[in-house]
Amino acid sequence: MIxxxxxxxxxxxxxxxxxxxxxxSSVLELPFNVLxxxxxxxxxxxxxxxxxxxxxxxxxxGLGVDPTADEKTIVEAGRLKELLVQLEAQPGSVVRPVFPxxxxxxxxxxxxxxxxxxxxxxxxxxxxxxxxxxxxxxxRKLPAAIETISVEPFAEPSAPKLPQPYLGxxxxxxxxxxxxxFLGDPRMQVAxxxxxxxxxxxxxxxxxxxxxxxxxxxxxxxxxxxxGIMAAGDNNKIIRGIVPDAKFWFVAASCKNGGSxxxxxxxxxxxxAAGKVRSGGVIVVPLQLxxxxxxxxxxxxxxxxxxxxxxxxxxQVIKKMSECxxxxxVLASGNGSCDLNKVRLRAASVPYCRPVFDKNYFDPGAIFxxxxxxxxxxxxxxxxxxxxxxxxxxxxxxxxxxxxxxxVAPSQAYTTDFGGTSGAAAIVAGVAANxxxxxxxxxxxxxxxxxxxxxxxxxxxxxxxxxxxALPNLQKTLQYLAGGPCP
Length: 487
Known about the structure:
By secondary structure, the protein is α/β, with parallel strands linked by helices. The chain has two domains: 134 residues, no CATH class; 317 residues, CATH 3.40.50.200. The protein has eight helices and 19 strands. The protein has a seven-stranded parallel sheet, with helices on both faces. A four-stranded antiparallel sheet has the order 4-7-1-8. A two-stranded antiparallel ribbon has the order 2-3. Helix 3 links the parallel strand 10 and strand 11. Helix 1 runs antiparallel to helix 2. The longest helix has 22 residues. The termini are far apart.
């Protein structure tokens, strides 16, 4: 038996228990008594594999019918489609996909495929009631096509449905909760530079894209996970991003396999991002170099996964972006368990091995981000670390977009287990964008990248953490920007 739990927490109607041999009940009862007195109603339809809804960019397009279905099902489904289109055309009506259909426990178990659900909102009127009544008559003729129908007063849930403790108090970033939380300014611009993205995810805003995605490696879920942490809409869906009211760009890097000779063509990608994002905007690069071979003539540790700033051309581009464009660049420190203090190279201009990641030698202005564990903010095993790492955030159990469990479509997939320095970098980038947004919203100039980095460190938790830097404290830093104290 498939149960559907409403936003009010009440099971209004359950249809078609499963019997041996595939038989099921054709009984359908509609609780019309819930309609009077409720200005807005919701219908939830669940269709089986023979009839399924089609949505294009979240807009209802129609119903698809399996060609193997019997002729009667095909005819009646066609009429059902007409009625749904009519209902959507009425003022105040919305037809959209449902995700998730039902959730159990820790959200790892989905009771039914969300691809089979249609959710309809409509303002109560005589016309909508007539359409609904005819729809119900057709549904009664389609026991093979319909699993569940419920008609109910609608109330949006007041909070995201997946847990996001990384947004809460320590060991989270301490973003304020409730209706008064600041979620950014539309003039703020944020770009993510990486391999690919599931940019049609139902929980993402419209994202402008630049660059070719024809690299050898493509991970759309990784791109969606990073973007979702920052940008997922404050729309009472599954999660909420840190700064969803900002404007977002995705810039594709050329993702090839491994090596230390710029496998991402980042010099080009970063230059494109700098041309799209306004001064004071934020650019996050959740990428790392893999299969690195360090200079054997220097006493280097056995580190093969390092930050992209190892590449001299990339460091110079970031320096130019920081100093000339005032762009805040946020970099993942990498997941190589490496002490960055010990990484050295022999520069052509000097006769000795110098530290690579030492701001006393070279500081382009980027924010280096490490990954912390959820319980106490200490370093995760795989996170790179060292004095160059400025800030950290959760590197595990992050609820965001993408991945899923293979049951749902990629555009509707979520995870509760994203992490690494990619996830941490996205959180820190979201905080940075939120802070710069607040300055714009209060008619103040945005901060210089190095100044913003310093304030985030000073106002953060664990400012004395020498391995992976401070943990951002968003509320405290916002108070400091408004003239309050900062430890």
